[in-house]
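Attaching the record inline, Q. Sequence:
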Amino acid sequence: MLEKELLKKVRRIQITSSHMVNDILAGEYHSVFKGRGMEFDEVREYQPGDDIRSIDWNVTARTGIPHIKKYVEERELTVMLIVDASASGHFGTRKQFKNELAAEVGALLAFSAIKNNDKVGLIIFTDEIEKFIPPKKGVRHVVRVIREILYFQPKKQTTNVQAALEYLSSVTKRRTVTFLISDFIDADYERALRIANKRHDVVAVSLNDEREGEMPNIGIVELMDAETGECMLVDTGDAELRKKYTILSKKNSKERETVFKACDVDHVPIMTGQSYIEAIIRFFKMREKRK
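Structure, as predicted:
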């Protein structure tokens, strides 16, 4: 894609996301992911002028000397976007590919974060870590993040969710709000997801397409696995084959949902060709109600 077209697309996503944040999501993100205000720092001896409401009566009783609890203002949140760039993202039968959907969802979340004065970072992965952008603030930084998600050219094709989650822990020292954006065509990541969610607030954003759950009857076609390159001829006119395909797809979706529930991870399913803003609003309202 030409540089001019690239910039135009990034700009369109920037404008659209900014409007959605200002007009629709105002207050939603903040109410769900706001910091805790003040956090405990230390206990020290009481000094003249200290607020007596801060006295730690347990420590005072134990030592016989008045002590107070000292608090510091909690710093802003850090939001990490972990985005799957494997080859299966180059698929979509409704308006856009899954990787384009990932960029738009990531942009919406990133602009929500910087409006709340939070930092935003990015990890792009396949079966290895392909790109890491440290968390920063500002519109220019978020535009760079959008551009990377849209047009990054990965070296590998397959997916390793476990590696991405382990890398998150290695590069972040403090708790983050982490959006894991992927189609989750992978296995054996449950343990890594559970560990990551104990340290961070992990939200799984799954990208899906209608044809991944239902095979149309269009005769004999050649299908290729985007991540392995394997090709095969398939007779989509075979009703029994289409039925098995649907059953297998539902089984995979159910197993994925079971993993998220077992790890106590919130799940936001999003379909190509459908409104992702509605899915995100439902998620925000669900989180707010639960709190």
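The chain has two domains: 3-32+75-290, 38-73. The domain at 3-32+75-290 is CATH 3.40.50.410 (Rossmann fold).

More tomorrow.
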